[in-house]
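User: Let's play a game. I give you a shape written as tokens, and you guess the letters that built it. Ready? Here's round one.
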């Protein structure tokens, strides 16, 4: 089974027939490219755990896999290689620039069994009605902390799954409390407080990841696997760079909203850089939860 890559071309008008001005479009594309670099690092650092979880879920050649919130497609590319040309990977995201990057990568690797879909993961029945009941595995990584209706994602994923299909989730528990840095830093504590406020200000539950197992059961799925693992980073290791990338990603929005000042941000980054010089410094990263829910009927 093969599928062509399908998504609105970047040169086409946006919804409503309006054309985005080049200067704005370029700025948005640059922001997406910068975020893609961070997401690429994040994927590489946690790729081994993702592959182990896919193996536990039984992802194999010929499967139909739905990658929710696929971003620029780092996991999508890996999944496409696993399911092979006889399978299909449906990559859904609401950012057209990410989907454009994914399309370029898929074309360069001749992965014609990747279908790109521009849409909201909270409205799967609306954007993927033709795939309802035909999906073997729905994969969602680092997604649920952001949309305001996480239960809608789970309900939609269940409709997409075949009987016996599985919803596979990887996400950070306690992301709002983030990284524990040693030596402890007042600047980091202020950042965590502001991060919590930013989630709540956007009407998002910062603790929603802890509630996902309950939500899966309430949606009629059977918990087939539930585990977590935590990693520790030391200066000089590749993993040490990830928390700083996360901080840099969150800071602009938090400063713009007034939850942190420019001075707070500078102090935080300076504190992190000073810690990097200490041979005894380390950072405990948020636990990563692995969750598989199975659709029994």
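Assistant: Ready! My guess for every position:
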């Amino acid at each position: 089974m093969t599928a062509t890559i399908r998504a609105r071309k970047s040169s086409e008008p946006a919804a409503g027939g309006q054309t985005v001005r080049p200067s704005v479009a370029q700025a948005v594309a640059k922001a997406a490219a910068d975020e893609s670099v961070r997401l690429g690092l994040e994927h590489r650092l946690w790729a081994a755990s993702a592959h182990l979880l896919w193996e536990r879920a039984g992802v194999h050649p010929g499967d139909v896999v739905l990658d929710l919130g696929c971003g620029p497609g780092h996991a999508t590319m890996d999944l496409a290689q696993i399911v092979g040309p006889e399978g299909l990977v449906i990559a859904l995201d609401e950012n057209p620039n990410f989907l454009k990057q994914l399309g370029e990568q898929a074309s360069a690797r001749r992965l014609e069994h990747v279908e790109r879909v521009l849409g909201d993961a909270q409205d799967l029945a609306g954007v993927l009605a033709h795939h309802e009941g035909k999906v073997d595995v729905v994969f969602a990584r680092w997604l649920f902390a952001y949309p305001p209706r996480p239960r809608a994602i789970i309900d939609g994923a269940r409709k997409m799954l075949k009987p016996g299909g599985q919803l596979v989730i990887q996400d950070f528990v306690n992301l709002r409390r983030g990284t524990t840095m040693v030596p402890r830093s007042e600047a980091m504590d202020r950042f965590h407080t502001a991060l919590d406020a930013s989630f709540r200000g956007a009407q998002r539950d910062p603790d929603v990841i802890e509630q996902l197992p309950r939500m899966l059961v309430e949606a009629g799925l059977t918990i087939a696997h539930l585990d977590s693992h935590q990693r520790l980073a030391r200066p000089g290791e590749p993993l040490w760079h990830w928390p700083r990338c996360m901080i840099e990603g969150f800071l602009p929005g938090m400063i713009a909203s007034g939850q942190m000042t420019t001075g707070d941000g500078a102090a935080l980054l300076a504190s992190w850089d000073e810690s990097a010089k200490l041979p005894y410094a380390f950072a405990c990263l948020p636990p990563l939860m692995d969750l598989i829910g199975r659709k029994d009927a």
